[in-house]
Write a structure and sequence with these properties.
By secondary structure, this protein is mainly α. The protein is built from eight helices and no strands.
C-alpha cells in the first residue's frame, strides 16, 4: 500500500481529496520528519486500517525509530487527552481547576524535537476536534518557532487524511 494506492481507492466524487492528498505528500513547508510524522499521527487518529497501512508504508520508513515511536505516541496520548480536555472545555466549571490525574509523560520526553511532537499532537487534536488541545499545541509550536504556514500545512494534512478515511469508511458501508 502507498499514497498512490489510497488515491486509486478514492471514488470520482472525492477527486478534490485525491488531489489534495497527492500535493500534501510533497509539502515543502515542513521538514521531512515533520511531514512524515504528521501523516503517521493523523493516519493513526483516522482509525482506518487501510489509511494507516498505506500511510505507514509511505511515510513510516522515512522516520527514525525514535521519530516513528514519537508520532505513534502523539496519536496515542492525544486519543486520551482530546477526550478528557474536550470534556473539561465543554462542561467547564470546577473541572478546569481539578488535576487531570492522567499519565502523559511522553509529552515532556517525546524522544524527538519538542516542536515536532507538539505539531503532531496538534494535527491529531484537529482530527479529534479538541479545541482546548488545539489552542495549547498551536501556542507551543509558535513558541518553538514554527510559522503559521507550517501549522496550517500540518492541519491540512490531518484534514485530508481524515477525509480519505471518511470516504473509504463510507464506501465500505455502502458496499456492505
Amino acid at each position: 500500500m502507498s499514497i498512490e494506492t489510497l488515491k486509486a481507492a478514492l471514488p470520482d466524487y472525492a477527486k478534490d481529496i485525491k488531489l489534495n492528498l497527492g500535493s500534501l505528500a510533497n509539502e515543502t513547508l515542513l521538514t521531512p520528519q515533520q511531514l512524515a510524522g504528521t501523516f503517521v499521527a493523523s493516519a493513526l487518529a483516522s482509525r482506518n486500517a487501510a489509511v494507516t497501512a498505506a500511510i505507514m508504508a509511505e511515510f513510516g520508513t522515512k522516520l527514525s525509530a525514535e521519530a516513528l515511536n514519537a508520532a505513534k505516541a502523539a496519536a496515542a496520548v492525544m486519543a486520551m487527552n482530546n477526550v478528557y480536555y474536550r470534556f473539561v472545555h465543554l462542561v467547564g466549571g470546577e473541572y478546569a481547576t481539578m488535576p487531570a490525574r492522567l499519565r502523559m509523560n511522553v509529552i515532556g520526553r517525546p524522544g524527538v524535537e519538542k516542536a515536532d511532537f507538539e505539531l503532531w499532537s496538534l494535527a491529531v487534536s484537529a482530527v479529534n476536534g479538541c479545541g482546548m488541545c488545539m489552542e495549547s499545541h498551536e501556542k507551543a509550536v509558535h513558541e518553538a518557532g514554527l510559522t503559521r504556514e507550517q501549522v496550517q500545512a500540518s492541519v491540512r494534512i490531518a484534514a485530508v487524511v481524515h477525509a480519505v478515511a471518511a470516504v473509504l469508511d463510507g464506501e465500505a458501508a455502502l458496499a456492505a
